[in-house]
């Protein structure tokens, strides 16, 4: 009998949920190789008795082998499926189609009564997607759902001394799938560990331990609630606690005169042993109080600001299978980028992640495994989050989440789930949680009216909406009337998702942070999201790539929409992550003038003693002096002023750079790791006196350049070159191309999200309509003078009346060959431009060189994502200048170029008057070639190396799911000019 259409969470034989504890009771892992076979469809439940594979003598000789834990779709059986909001099966709750991939798993294990003599033996599953039915030695033990939750059965009475057979049938789809509609791969399988857990007689079945600390006095309370045998002893050697209770009536919270606080910045944990005569459980307890006081969220008495990310469990090879080293690496990388909070989007992670969060220091919002997003498309009709038929399933999820993870200091808020509309079952979940654990506030974004949650949460609000919630109200509070609006505005405000980090982006991180600074009610938020979900795959010819929706032939999928992380699928940090690190600097450094700088401590707990200040002055990018200073001792929230030592005056471009760095190594970074950086320009570049021409034309050669009759460059010294060609196009980013909250489907199969409605189409829709990707050029005139050449070009798209007129003025002088470019728009322009610049063609061989530049770097930057960029001398291989985003798109723009060396090519940019410095970009493909390509391996063969010099680029925004580029970062048609010298 299967339970596919059963909205109940599982069989009654499941044991009561409890914490994932470290105990000295015996444990036997059942991980390893199991026998496996996959049915394309549910084998059916019309046969009485257990399916044949469950029988003890089942012949598995024809079966495959599969590792447990794993997802079968990543081991050559079936395939992963990606959908965001949509269900990949009919909306026919609680039923699922018969074509239901079903994985039979079977293994033999040894067990002897001595495993836990006199006690019981439990069978534990830590995560199975989505419905599992379990047999031991042919007897049905039970069934369960709740993919990312733990389940235990007592199998003692079914075990025999010696060999035992465990059989598990896993259905990919079940009624529970309606509750698990998160924006991620559907990845069925036994993907977390399976084990036998010995339960000694008089052991500890469960422990609930909470550490509280009074922020005013520093006194602590340790509240330990054991369940199981008696008497119970609680020992905390560091605090001199050694307390024995002989019966439940004796349990009292233990008071401590002075205890250190646990915070994300000071993750101080105390070892707590709880024992009976049969079992000892070791907990690591942190003492902190989390409370909502009016519209403030406080931790240890001070405002808790979330500088966090939404973290899904995703690994390009293992999917959601836990790997300790990988996760530790992720968390350390977060801390190195000033990220101190995690929302466990959208389900409980492997329990070990929370232990690591306790140790490394993160404020965690722990989310239940619940999302019914697809019901959005049917106006929430029949939404399981509201329908009483699903009450037990919803409550079961809340209970299993809270019980499993209740002992973690890092968990500061419970989240009921994500995008499940609103309804009675959610309210009941909140009620149950409040009863069980009143030490943590409750979060759920979909509770727009604030009826059952403790904080007001929003996703992807505009800056105006935030200002309206936190400051003067200028617009209605999101989707609710005045009464609920007033209630919501009286609570702490958090952004559970913001700054959609898809592809190149997000823009405006600094703008969001400035609101966090401005409004005490705003308690920060969580960037969407930490990491791209690409799955490592290979083309037929063996080229590796990262697959996304549709790459496995799924008939219904959401394309590239899960490639939206700050970290690429292979773990490469994106420039967006660097930008976030800069915006979330724990101390800010602000130049006040001359040698004075203001230092502000924005941390929650820490002072400044663990940091030192390194400074350097560079003239034309070359260090002229440097030193190290002590930071003033600043408490959180305080600021002070420092003076740098005097240094001789500059005659050329001088920048002073300050870096606050760790004095000593920490658990997540070595000594010297820079946590904050700021720069100030103290002297501008000296104008270079014009030097007289050293020669004129020799045939078609002017200096080192050779031109054709139309004024185009054809040779530079030994290099065959081409251009310059005016250019307005950039390969659209997803933020250019999409409107996550918009409505209609795209023609591009990789992009199945809305591209905006007719009134507010996505930028790239406008750009394409106006033909910015296909300018046609007409040389208006070419004039040669004794020492120069002026080429005028008019560029317009087919059937349009607007365009740009470009004047390329070349002149040979004592410095080299000077090119002044001047671009002016004409005609009825009514859209922004992606970029405005010119393109040169260079020989492909130069792509193998290393580029050296003096300008901004080290990473790409754009008008609304430029906090991490600073001025200096940098070097990188040409191929490392761009970022391998999940889908080819604009990448690699570095504004503020002073000079560029690439093999034999040297160019210098000259700023003068209203003429700014251009940005540069080097790419093996043109912007046109990069457009509309689903994966890097589908790019056409490279035809050379392209150098773009841009006066400006459009901002990035985060419109793939959020606001568009703000007007102040938009590139509207305007006249631009810049000058470079080839020497
Ligand atoms: C929001 C989801 O909560 C999140 O899981 C993810 O899908 C994100 O969007 C987009 O990447 S929901 C959206 C309708 C705002």
From TrEMBL:
PROSITE patterns: GLYCOSYL_HYDROL_F2_2. One of its GO terms (molecular function) is carbohydrate binding. One of its GO terms (biological process) is lactose catabolic process. Its EC number is 3.2.1.23. Pfam families: Bgal_small_N (PF02929), Glyco_hydro_2_C (PF02836), Glyco_hydro_2_N (PF02837), LacZ_4 (PF16353). It comes from Microbacterium testaceum (Aureobacterium testaceum). Residues 726-763 are annotated as: Disordered. This is Beta-galactosidase. It catalyses: Hydrolysis of terminal non-reducing beta-D-galactose residues in beta-D-galactosides. Residues 701-983 form the Beta galactosidase small chain/ domain. PANTHER family: BETA-GALACTOSIDASE. Belongs to the glycosyl hydrolase 2 family. Coiled coil: none annotated. Keywords: Glycosidase, Hydrolase. The keyword Hydrolase applies. Residues 734-744 have a biased composition (Polar residues). One of its GO terms (cellular component) is beta-galactosidase complex.
């Amino acid at each position: 009998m299967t339970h596919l259409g059963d909205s109940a969470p599982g069989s009654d034989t499941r044991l009561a949920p409890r914490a994932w504890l470290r105990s000295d009771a015996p444990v036997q892992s059942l991980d390893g190789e199991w026998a496996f076979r996959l049915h394309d469809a549910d084998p059916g439940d019309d046969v009485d008795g257990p399916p044949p594979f469950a029988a003890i003598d089942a012949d598995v000789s024809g079966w495959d082998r599969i590792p447990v834990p794993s997802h079968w779709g990543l081991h050559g059986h079936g395939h992963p499926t990606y959908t965001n909001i949509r269900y990949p099966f009919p909306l026919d709750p609680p039923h699922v189609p018969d074509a239901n991939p079903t994985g039979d798993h079977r293994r033999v294990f040894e067990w002897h009564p001595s495993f836990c003599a006199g006690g019981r033996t439990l069978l534990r599953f830590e995560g199975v997607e989505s419905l599992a039915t379990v047999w031991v030695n042919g007897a049905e033990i039970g069934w369960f759902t709740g993919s990312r939750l733990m389940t235990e059965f007592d199998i003692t009475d079914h075990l025999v001394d010696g060999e035992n057979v465990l059989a598990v049938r896993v259905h990919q789809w079940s009624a529970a799938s309606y509750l698990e509609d998160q924006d991620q791969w559907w990845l069925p399988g036994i993907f977390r560990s399976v084990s036998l857990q010995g339960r000694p007689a008089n052991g500890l079945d469960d422990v609930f331990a909470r550490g509280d600390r009074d922020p005013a006095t520093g006194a602590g309370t340790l509240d330990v609630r054991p369940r199981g045998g008696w008497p119970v002893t609680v020992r905390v050697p560091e605090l001199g606690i050694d307390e024995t209770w002989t019966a439940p009536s004796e349990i009292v919270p233990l008071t401590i005169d002075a205890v250190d606080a646990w915070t994300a910045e000071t993750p101080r944990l105390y070892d707590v042993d709880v024992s009976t005569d049969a079992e000892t459980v070791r907990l690591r307890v942190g003492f902190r109080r989390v409370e909502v006081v009016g519209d403030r969220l406080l931790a240890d008495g001070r405002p808790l600001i979330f500088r966090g990310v939404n973290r899904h469990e995703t690994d390009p090879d293992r999917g959601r299978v836990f790997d300790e080293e990988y996760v530790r690496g992720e968390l350390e990388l977060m801390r190195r980028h000033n990220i101190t909070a995690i929302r466990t989007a959208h389900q409980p992670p492997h329990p070990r992640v929370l232990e690591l969060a306790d140790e490394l220091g993160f404020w965690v919002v722990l989310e239940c495994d619940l999302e019914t997003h697809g019901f959005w498309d049917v106006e929430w009709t029949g939404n399981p989050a509201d329908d009483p038929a699903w009450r037990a399933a919803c409550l079961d999820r809340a209970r299993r989440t809270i019980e499993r993870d209740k002992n973690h200091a890092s968990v500061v808020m419970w989240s009921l789930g994500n995008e499940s509309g609103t309804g009675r079952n959610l309210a009941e979940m909140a009620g149950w949680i409040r009863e069980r654990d009143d030490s943590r506030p409750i979060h759920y974004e979909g509770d727009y009216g604030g009826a059952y949650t403790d904080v007001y949460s929003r996703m992807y609000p505009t800056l105006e909406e935030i200002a309206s919630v936190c400051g003067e109200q200028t617009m209605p509070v999101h989707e609710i009337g005045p009464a609920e609006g007033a209630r919501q505005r009286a609570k702490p405000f958090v952004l559970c998702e913001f700054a959609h980090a898809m592809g190149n982006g997000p823009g405006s991180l600094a703008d969001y942070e400035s609101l966090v600074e401005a409004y005490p009610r705003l308690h920060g938020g969580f960037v969407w999201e930490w990491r791209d979900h690409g799955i490592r795959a290979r083309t037929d010819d063996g080229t590796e790539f990262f697959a996304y929706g549709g790459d496995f032939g799924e008939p219904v999928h959401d394309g590239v929409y899960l490639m939206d992380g700050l970290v690429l699928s292979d773990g490469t940090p994106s420039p967006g992550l660097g930008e976030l690190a800069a915006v979330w600097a724990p101390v800010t450094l602000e130049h006040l003038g001359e040698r004075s700088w203001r230092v502000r401590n924005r941390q929650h707990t820490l002072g400044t003693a663990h940091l030192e200040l390194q400074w350097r002055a560079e003239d034309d990018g070359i260090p002229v002096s440097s030193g190290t200073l002590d930071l003033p001792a600043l408490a959180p929230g305080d600021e002070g002023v420092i003076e740098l030592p005097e240094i001789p005056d500059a005659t050329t471009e001088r920048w002073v750079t300050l870096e606050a760095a760790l004095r000593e190594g920490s658990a997540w970074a070595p000594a010297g790791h820079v946590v904050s950086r700021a720069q100030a320009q103290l002297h501008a570049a000296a104008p270079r006196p014009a030097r007289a021409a050293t020669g004129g034309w020799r045939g078609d050669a002017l200096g080192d350049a050779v031109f054709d009759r139309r004024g185009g460059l054809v040779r530079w010294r030994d290099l065959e070159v081409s251009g310059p060609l005016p250019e307005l196009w950039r390969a659209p980013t997803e933020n250019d191309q999409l409107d996550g909250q918009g409505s209609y489907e795209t023609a591009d199969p990789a992009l199945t999200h809305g591209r905006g409605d007719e009134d507010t189409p996505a930028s790239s829709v406008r750009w394409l309509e106006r033909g910015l990707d296909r300018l046609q050029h007409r040389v208006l005139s070419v004039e040669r003078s004794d020492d120069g050449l002026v080429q005028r070009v008019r560029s317009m798209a087919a059937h349009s009346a607007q365009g740009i007129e470009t004047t390329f003025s070349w002149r040979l002088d004592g410095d080299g060959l000077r090119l002044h470019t001047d671009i002016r728009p004409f005609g009825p322009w009514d859209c922004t431009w992606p970029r405005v610049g010119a393109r040169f063609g260079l020989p492909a061989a130069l792509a193998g060189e290393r580029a050296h530049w003096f300008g901004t770097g080290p990473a790409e930057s754009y008008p609304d994502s430029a906090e991490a960029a600073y001025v200096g001398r940098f070097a990188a291989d040409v191929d490392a200048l761009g970022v391998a985003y999940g889908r080819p798109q604009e990448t690699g723009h570095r504004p503020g170029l002073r000079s560029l060396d690439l093999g034999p090519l040297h160019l210098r940019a000259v700023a003068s008057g209203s003429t700014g410095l251009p940005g540069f970009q080097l790419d093996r493909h043109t912007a046109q070639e990069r457009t509309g390509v689903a994966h890097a391996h589908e790019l056409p063969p490279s035809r050379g190396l392209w150098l773009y010099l841009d006066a400006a680029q459009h901002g990035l925004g985060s419109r793939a799911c959020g606001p568009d580029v703000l007007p102040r970062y938009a590139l509207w048609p305007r006249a631009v000019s810049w000058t470079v010298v080839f020497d």
